[in-house]
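Weekly structure sync, notes
Attendees: PL (lead), two postdocs, one rotation student
Agenda item 3: pending single-chain targets
PL asked that the sequence for the first pending target be pasted directly into the notes so everyone works from the same version. It is reproduced below exactly as submitted, 175 residues in total.
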Amino acid sequence: MNALSKGIAVAAIHILMVLSLGGKLLYDRATRPRLWVQTSSVDPDLPIRGRYITLGLQVHVPEYQPDTRPGPQKYIYQQEFVKLSVENGQLTARKSESPTGLTIVSWGRQMNQAVNDIFVLSPNVDFFVPEHADVPALRRGDQMWAEVTIPRKGPPRPIQLAIKRGTEWIPLHYR
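Predicted structure, written out during the meeting:
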C-alpha cells in the first residue's frame, strides 16, 4: 500500500466518522423530545475563536422543597446530579443516585419571605452563530428561549433561539 492509498483510507475513515456523528444527531433530533426552554444569561468562557452564546438552561425540579423560614435575605447554593426528562411540557430534572455528568445549580434568594429559586442545568450549552450574523441585544424584560433536543445521555442540544418580549415571540434567524 503506497502513501496515496493510505492517505485516501485515512480520509475515508474520517469522513465516515463525521457522517456517523451527523447521522446520530439528525436521528436524535427526529426521534427524541424537543421543547423550548428559558435560558439564563451566562458569561461565555471558551478559549476558542468564533461567535457563540453560552446558555444556562432553566429546569423544573419537582423534588425541591424551598426553605420558607422567615429571616434576613440569604443566598442558597445547591448542586445535585440529575437525569433529564420532559414532563408537562417542561424540561424536568430528577435526582440521580449515580453521576450523570449533569447537575443543577440553584441560587435562591429569600427576601421579605418570598422565595425566588431558579434552577439552571450545568454544564451550560453553547449555541454557535455565524460570524457576520446580526445578534439582537436583549432589552429590560426580554427573555431568551432556546429550542433543544433532549438526548438519552448528556446535555440538551440547542437547535434555535427566540426572544420573548412581553407576549411577542421573536424567533432569531442567523444567516
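Discussion points:
- The longest helix spans residues 3-31.
- DSSP finds one helix and ten strands in the chain.
Action: rotation student to compare against the earlier draft before next sync.
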